[in-house]
């Protein structure tokens, strides 16, 4: 009788487990998107396509088992806090925050319970977004571009190889006079830029812009100080206004290297950066694991594993510049 009773208990336990799994499988999850620009924006559409593809390959299909709620700052980073609060009020099951530098911090301030996956979080430990890369803690995890601290040295090295005689480089940055999070990011990145410049024996002319209205005056200052080349550091403003900055660099006849591949596609000379589509695809894996029960704070922060060099030969020709074979041979994409 005792064996029969045990068998009955086990049977009901298994049935209950199957019922729970079936109920979980039938649930429709609400996914919140807190981002700078909409996925339909040409500059970021490829990244989001990788994200949606990453979800689909894991069985998540919009309209079937996930619903999307989106809020976009559209270049106005000061809006992230209110947009995050608005998104949290909708009670999503998870929030994807892009970029982590601004959207991640805003989402974290808005909720301590809803899981958050950030993409492009610059120095998340240094800025207080997470406790550590190995154990982020709390309700947040994601992918960092902390490697930008090393990438900036590579960008300057490529610029020096492309323009060997350059001795003075203008560095366009954003955020030194901004809110605390942005200021910490900008200062950290700029500090590494100075180290790289010193190693390459080039002098830096730092130009901090707080709004797109200051771009023209920044380029006028570069011309006045006779900068021989330009390093455009990766920030929200330099991404959103990539085409305008590339046009101003062309007008000023300044060879420039950028931290976003989209800048080279918009007419900039060259860009060296972590592969954004690859990072978005990996972010989808985090979303999948968390929706299936994983705790965000237990998932280590991932760093970039794939990097891309994009060279725009049309821009090089317009500048009268010949890209050395040693640089051209390393390009992942050449725009002709």
Written description of the protein model:
This protein is of the alpha/beta class. It folds into 2 domains: 27-145 and 276-305, 3-Layer(aba) Sandwich (Rossmann fold), CATH 3.40.50; 148-274 and 308-335, Rossmann fold, CATH 3.40.50.2300. The protein has 13 helices and 12 strands. It has helices spanning 2-25, 42-56, 80-89, 100-110, 148-162, 180-199, 215-224, 236-240, 242-251, 261-265, 276-291, 313-318, 325-328; strands spanning 29-35, 66-72, 94-98, 116-121, 140-144, 168-174, 203-209, 229-232, 256-258, 270-274, 307-312, 333-335. Helix 4 links the parallel strand 3 and strand 4. Helix 2 packs parallel to helix 11 (276-291), helix 3 (80-89) crosses helix 4 and helix 5 packs across helix 6 (180-199). The longest helix is centred in the first third of the chain and has 24 residues, at 2-25. The N and C termini lie far apart (82 Å). Mean pLDDT is 87; it is low at 1-24 and 178-183.
């Amino acid at each position: 009788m005792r064996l029969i009773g045990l068998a009955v208990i086990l049977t009901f336990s298994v049935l209950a487990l199957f019922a729970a799994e079936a109920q979980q499988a039938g649930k429709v999850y609400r996914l919140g998107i807190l981002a700078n620009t909409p996925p339909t924006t040409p500059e970021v559409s490829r990244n989001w396509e990788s994200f949606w593809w990453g979800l689909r390959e894991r069985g998540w299909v919009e309209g079937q088992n996930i619903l999307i709620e989106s809020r976009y700052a559209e270049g106005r980073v000061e809006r992230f806090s209110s947009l995050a609060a608005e998104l949290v009020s909708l009670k999503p099951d998870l929030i994807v925050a892009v970029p982590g530098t601004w959207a991640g911090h805003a989402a974290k301030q808005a909720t301590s319970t809803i899981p958050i996956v950030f993409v492009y979080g610059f120095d998340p430990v240094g800025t207080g977004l997470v406790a550590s890369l190995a154990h982020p803690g709390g309700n947040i995890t994601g992918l960092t571009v902390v490697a930008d601290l090393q990438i900036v040295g590579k960008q300057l090295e490529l610029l020096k190889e492309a323009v060997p005689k350059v001795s003075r480089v203008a560095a366009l940055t954003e955020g030194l006079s901004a809110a605390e999070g942005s200021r910490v990011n900008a200062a950290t990145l700029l500090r590494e830029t100075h180290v790289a410049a010193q190693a390459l024996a080039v002098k830096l002319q730092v130009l901090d812009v707080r709004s797109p209205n200051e771009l023209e005056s920044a380029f006028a200052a570069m011309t006045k100080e006779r900068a021989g080349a330009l390093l455009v550091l990766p920030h929200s403003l330099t991404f959103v206004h990539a085409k305008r900055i590339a046009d101003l660099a062309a007008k000023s006849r300044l060879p420039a290297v950028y931290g976003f591949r989209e800048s080279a596609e918009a007419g900039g000379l060259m860009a060296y950066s972590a592969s954004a589509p690859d990072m978005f695809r990996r972010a989808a894996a985090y979303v999948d694991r968390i929706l299936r029960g994983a705790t965000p704070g237990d998932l280590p922060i991932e760093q970039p594993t794939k990097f891309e060099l994009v060279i725009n030969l049309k821009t090089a020709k317009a500048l009268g510049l010949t890209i050395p074979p040693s640089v051209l041979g390393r390009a992942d994409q050449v725009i002709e």
